Fold:
Amino acid sequence: MSEEALAYRQMVLNVEEGAKLLEDKRREVESSFLLKAVKVREFNREKDGRAFIELFNKVFQASPDPYLPLKGEEVDEIPEEGFFVAEINGRIVGFIIAFVTGGGKIGVIGVIGVDPDYRRMGIATALAVKAAEYLIEKGVEKVVTEVYVDNISSYNLIKSFGFKETAIAVYGIMEAACKRHPIRTRSATR
Structure:
């Protein structure tokens, strides 16, 4: 009996090459009428923890990505630095987690998600701009991420920032289940 496989696009962005696209994206976010009500800010564990868990699980249940539920105690392990949320009228509607590794030279987009009820409004773009600014401020030379091959929306978003696909990583179902989740990987890097 063969095991089903999960494939992820490994993507990379040279920060120097992506600077012009980032500036274009920043202007797009600033001029968007739809994004006037969206506030992108740093995650606050005390204030946002429970809402984040609910949103994370809602996002990935509605996503083509394999669903790995996030449990309450795991939020306590996630460093707040590089963790941003988008909110509308005090309600969290999106999130992104970025972190630095590789001796400070590599930025990682670990996870991004937007409430299905608020998609196609530019919220993911606003979050990605915030994470990119954070990573550039940290002095990274390149940014990497993995995108599940069936998640075309995420792939197109990442590609729109100038990321290039470098490889396809294939994991067996059991290997993927045991693979450290991007948030859990982030926790292990602090």
Observations:
- Strands lie at 5-14, 38-42, 83-88, 91-101, 106-114, 142-148, 164-172.
- Residues 5-188 form a domain with the Aminopeptidase fold (CATH 3.40.630.30).
- Residues 15-31 form the longest helix (17 residues).
